[in-house]
Write a sequence for this structure.
């Protein structure tokens, strides 16, 4: 069956797609090396915040020394993971020998010793209930059969484990998928050098008057790697919240909570709950289960909706999923301590190697939002007060909308300003 919303021209078999992806990411190592890597000075810090991100206020869902699998690690992700979770044992898998080599070299430069790199296809691994935490972001949608790949991930996850998963949001990929399809019709199959030249020429010289133009202009000055990753993906599926939920269900998985990522954070576009003025519509919307609200938001916000980046768990985990409303109620009743970690920074030197900086700045530092900053200050000066008490003191409503935004912006990995004191 031909599915028009995906780019599947080169998707002939699992083995064929593995081969073409290895070739593509060997040529275009994504993501590019960052200017710096960083890590919290407290080795338990990120695990504590990960637990809070999934609603485990006593920090018990993910153990302090977890087994982690980075499935499709690329050139950088395993390095970040090893730095963020130094107490963990990390397995990092990727098809591309070039990406693995880059990641190994960088790991040595920044002193990461807890990562084992494996050049392997995640479609052919045999892991069974091995991992407490599994990271797979931007990967399964480039495979021949995302459902089969996801089932491999589910099998590798311990029954109580957590999967961090990102797949493409269909409304974010309308332009890229269309462009990829056009390029495949203009260039011989699998010739990435010709595709790159063709894509650059189209971006610079084809007379088109539609929303593709603005997107191409935004990529005109980007690096070769960023340009190729956006416009030349060999195979690409994309999803809505509804189709993602169905995909997860087929693999015995459920959505747990949204995961705030660095891209949505930078754009201040990580809220999945709509602000609705009409009282009748607002009441109907707010009465829906979390996942149904996210579906509605995805359909109405379209390209303005957040990335499909979520925490998931196995359906047989034995752990009841806590709703966002329940999380907010718990958040309001809890007492918190401000985070007081430091940040270790590794900076890229003139010779291209990473070296540790002498600077050790506070992490996460001062909150940019004045209301959140006030709550952090009140938590420090009045540790006996709950968040509800603090909101009453500063005369701020504690309805679901406000409480959920504060929860996300104060107690998650993306905004790690407060640590629960309920242990």
């Amino acid at each position: 069956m031909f599915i028009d919303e995906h780019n599947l021209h080169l998707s002939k078999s699992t083995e064929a797609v593995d081969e073409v992806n290895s070739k593509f990411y060997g040529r275009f190592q994504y993501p590019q090396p960052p200017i710096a890597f960083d890590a919290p000075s407290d080795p338990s810090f990120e695990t504590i915040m990960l637990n809070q991100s999934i609603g485990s206020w006593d920090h018990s869902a993910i153990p302090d020394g977890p087994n982690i699998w980075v499935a499709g690690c690329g050139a950088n992700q395993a390095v970040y993971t090893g730095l963020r979770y130094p107490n963990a044992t990390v397995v990092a898998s990727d098809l591309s020998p070039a990406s693995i080599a880059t990641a190994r070299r960088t790991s040595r430069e920044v002193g990461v010793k807890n990562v084992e790199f494996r050049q392997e296809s995640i479609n052919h691994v045999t892991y069974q209930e091995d991992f407490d935490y599994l990271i797979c972001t931007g990967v399964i949608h480039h495979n021949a059969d995302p459902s089969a790949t996801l089932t491999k991930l589910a099998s590798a996850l311990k029954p109580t484990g957590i999967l961090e998963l990102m797949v493409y949001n269909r409304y974010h990929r309308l332009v890229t998928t269309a462009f990829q399809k056009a390029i495949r019709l203009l260039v011989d199959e699998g010739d990435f050098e010709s595709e790159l030249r063709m894509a650059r020429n189209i971006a610079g010289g084809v007379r088109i008057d539609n929303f593709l133009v603005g997107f191409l202009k935004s990529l005109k000055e980007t690096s070769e790697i960023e340009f190729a990753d956006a416009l030349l993906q060999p195979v690409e599926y994309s999803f809505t919240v509804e189709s993602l939920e169905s995909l997860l269900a087929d693999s015995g998985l459920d959505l747990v909570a949204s995961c705030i990522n660095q891209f949505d954070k930078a754009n201040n576009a990580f809220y999945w709950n709509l602000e609705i003025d009409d009282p009748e519509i607002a009441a109907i919307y707010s009465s829906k289960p979390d996942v149904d609200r996210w579906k509605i938001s995805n359909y109405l916000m379209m390209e303005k909706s957040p990335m499909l980046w979520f925490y998931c768990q196995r359906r047989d985990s034995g752990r009841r999923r806590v709703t966002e409303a329940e999380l907010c109620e718990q958040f309001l009743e809890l007492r918190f301590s401000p985070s007081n970690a430091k940040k270790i920074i590794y900076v890229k030197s003139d010779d291209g190697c990473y070296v540790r900086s002498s600077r050790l700045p506070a992490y996460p530092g001062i909150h940019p939002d004045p209301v959140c900053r006030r709550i952090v200050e009140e938590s420090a000066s009045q540790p006996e007060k709950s968040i509800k008490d603090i909101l009453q003191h500063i005369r701020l409503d504690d309805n679901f909308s406000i409480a959920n935004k504060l929860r996300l912006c104060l107690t998650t990995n993306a905004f790690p300003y407060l640590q629960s004191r309920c242990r």
Residues 174-231 form one domain. DSSP finds 17 helices and 13 strands in the chain.
